[in-house]
Design goal:
mainly beta
Length: about 90
């Protein structure tokens, strides 16, 4: 994970043991994810957006002062869902 200055990411103390799920609260981060079929890598983003991958390289950008969310995939595939239905 590479973070832009000022980026805020939260993850559980036992990250990677039971699951690979974190929250990008504010900023921009690049993730290079090793494939683990049994443990998908999930990035939760404020506003109900979620990016889920098994193994790939991707960037997520979400700044607190905007409603825009950007997911840029450099390799592989990313499943993006929006719980608000918008």
């Amino acid at each position: 994970m590479w973070l832009e200055p000022g980026t805020v990411v939260r993850y559980p103390k036992d990250f990677g043991k039971r699951n690979r799920e974190l929250e990008l609260e504010d900023g921009m981060a690049f993730f290079a994810v090793k494939e683990q079929t049994e443990h998908p890598f999930i990035v939760n983003i404020p506003g109900g957006v979620q990016a889920k991958v098994l193994g790939t390289g991707f960037t997520v950008r979400k700044y607190a002062q905007t409603v825009d969310v950007t997911v840029m995939v450099s390799s592989g595939a990313v499943q993006v869902t929006d719980s608000t239905g918008v």
